[in-house]
Structure formats: C-alpha cells, structure tokens
C-alpha cells in the first residue's frame, strides 16, 4: 500500500473524494431549484419525496459519469489491452481510475449519510449494506492499486440507474400511463442487456 500512496495519490485521492461530495451537494441543490421552477408536480410532493427527488438527481449524475469513465477505460483506452503493457491486468491502474474511485467513494459517503439521516425513508438496511460493501471494495482497490478493471466493470452497471430514477420520477409525478414511462422501461431493459453482454465479452476475451 505504501508504494501505491505516492505524492500524486496524496493529493488526488482526498481531492477526488471531496469532489464527489461537493458534486453531490451542488447537484442536490440544483435539482431542488430547477425542479421547483420547472415541474409543477414537485410542489405537490411531501417533504420525504422532495428529499428523495433531489437525492436521485446526484445519483443520476454519478451513474452517468461512472458508466462513461468505466466504458472509456475498459473498452476504448489501451489501459487494459494485453498487448499495450507488460504488467498483468490486475496490476494496471491510471490516475483517471483513481479519480473515479475517489469520486464514487465521495458519492457513496454522501448518499449513505442521507440514508442514515432520513432512515428508513431513502432505503433500509439493504442500502446500508450495499453502500458499505461498495465503499470497502472501491477503497480496497484504490489502496492496493489492484483489480481496477473489475471495479470499473461493476461501476459500469450504473448505466441502468438513470432509467431506474426516471421511472421513479414518472411514478411520483403520476405519469405511469404516458408513453415515456413505457419507453423508459424498454431503455432500462436494453441498458441492462448491454452491460450484461459487455461484461461477458470482456470476461471471455
């Protein structure tokens, strides 16, 4: 671990965790302000629903960023290309994967704090377990500098989160009968199918 915690990491890791926390707070407030002005249904929600509505705003942004960065590092860049590096795949990492892991830890810390503050409105014990295990796995990969590809593959599964959140938004807004609700359901299935196929392709090759 000590060899993996050099001068760059001493700055990058705390900064990326802090960036994740700040991002969540900023998007939470932005979601609240935009929603109160642009969506009539927002004013009809109770306080618990408003908190969850805003919470799902930064959940969606984290999911989009995590999925995009993971896809780039695993599928597009040569970081995990067998012919591009001499080291074995499990030992490969980059500043971008470190940064993404830090941001994700910041996100999970923020979300976990909100879950505990409003427990069990935003999620029960299963959410506490999920977030705890997620931070443990990401933190272990970050500290050891190993298995970054496999953590990125897990983070790529966040690609379905925006569709899950949109489904919730439409539900509480009373729009379950609109076409968008149906199209979103199809997109959710397709997104899940894509990430399953990509995971199997990566494991096969």
Question: What is the chains' assembly state?
Answer: single chain
- Estimate the global geometry from the Cα principal axes: globular
How many H/I helical runs?
7
SSE topology string: HHHHHHH
Derived from helix and strand composition plus strand pairing, the structural class reads mainly alpha
What does the radius of gyration come to?
18 Å
Largest sheet: none
Through-space gap between termini: 29 Å
What amount of the residues lies in strands?
A: under 5%
Give a short summary of the structure:
This protein has about 200 residues and is mostly helical. The protein has helices at about 5-40, 45-75, 95-115, 125-145, 150-155, 160-170, 180-205. It has one domain (about 1-160).
Please explain how this structure is put together.
The protein is 74% helix and 0% strand. The chain has 205 residues and is mainly α. The chain has one domain. Helix 1 crosses helix 3, helix 2 (47-76) packs antiparallel against helix 3 and helix 2 packs antiparallel against helix 6.
List keywords for this structure.
7 helices; single chain; TLC-dom; membrane; mainly alpha; transmembrane; 205 residues; globular
Layout of secondary structure:
Elements lengths: L6 H32 L8 H30 L18 H23 L7 H20 L3 H9 L4 H12 L6 H26 L1
Helix pairs in contact: 1-2, 1-3, 2-3, 2-5, 2-6, 3-4, 6-7
